[in-house]
User: Which sequence fits this backbone?
């Protein structure tokens, strides 16, 4: 079997086995993907089921690391794969299929997919894709990455507007305390930064909590995050922002194009 350098650990321990749940109707394309996955000693197919009423129970029982789902199943299942991700937050989703338009690819990445496999990618790409998404990376082509970057610029404007809307309901002193809270400072540290008493900080915090109907700083941070980032894949989008600066400087992106090494990106 081909280990493919798969999931090798930095401390020299044996690589763990990646459990893959496949959701697709049987066909020759699926047979080919399964044959590729079977080449790795560090991949285990824990279920391969047709979309239908029994799929959910099979998925829950499988406790998979990766959901490999056909594009048609994404379209046919209500909510796509959102229910799977909500049930297993650490689940990595890879969508596969032919003739997937760019808008569809953009939609699945924004919805939480970690990557996709299309007709332009080989068996080696599939094995590498599984490895990369389990390492927390995106598996997307350069053109999709560039379009995501443009969407991130739009997202930055949305975030800035949301932050301004929050600040508009706060006084100048409350805004300063709010900024320190988001920076992770304790009440004592905020008092030191602002050169005021801790009691004064607590008083202003109490007013902020009332305005946003929360009871502590943790709830305030979560509420702020929800208001300014109402999308999936926020951390990955932050990565893409970093790539925007990399590309502008003529440097390779931090998120590698799956086909770039083949000269097809």
Assistant:
């Amino acid at each position: 079997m081909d280990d493919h350098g798969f999931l090798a650990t930095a401390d020299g321990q044996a690589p763990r086995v990646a459990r893959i749940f496949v959701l697709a109707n049987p066909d020759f394309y699926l047979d080919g993907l399964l044959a590729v996955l079977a080449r790795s000693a560090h991949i285990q197919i824990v279920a391969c089921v047709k979309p239908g009423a029994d799929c959910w129970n099979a998925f829950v029982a499988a406790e998979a690391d990766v959901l490999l789902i056909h594009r048609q199943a994404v379209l046919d299942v209500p909510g796509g794969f959102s229910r799977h991700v909500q049930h297993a937050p650490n689940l990595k989703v890879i969508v596969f299929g032919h003739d997937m338009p760019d808008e569809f690819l953009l939609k699945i990445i924004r919805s939480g997919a970690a990557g996709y496999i299309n007709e332009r990618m080989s068996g080696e790409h599939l094995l590498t894709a599984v490895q990369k998404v389990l390492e927390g990376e995106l598996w997307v082509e350069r053109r999709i990455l560039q379009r995501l970057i443009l969407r991130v610029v739009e997202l930055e404007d949305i975030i800035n507007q949301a932050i301004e809307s929050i600040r508009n309901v706060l006084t100048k002193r409350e805004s300063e305390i709010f900024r320190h809270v988001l920076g992770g400072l304790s009440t004592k540290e905020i008092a030191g930064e602002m050169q005021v008493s801790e009691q004064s900080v607590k008083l202003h915090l109490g007013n902020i909590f009332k305005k946003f109907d929360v009871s502590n700083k943790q709830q305030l941070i979560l509420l702020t995050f929800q208001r300014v980032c109402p999308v999936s894949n926020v951390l990955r989008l932050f990565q893409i922002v970093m790539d925007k600066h990399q590309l502008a400087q003529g440097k390779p992106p931090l998120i590698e194009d799956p086909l770039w090494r083949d000269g097809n990106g």
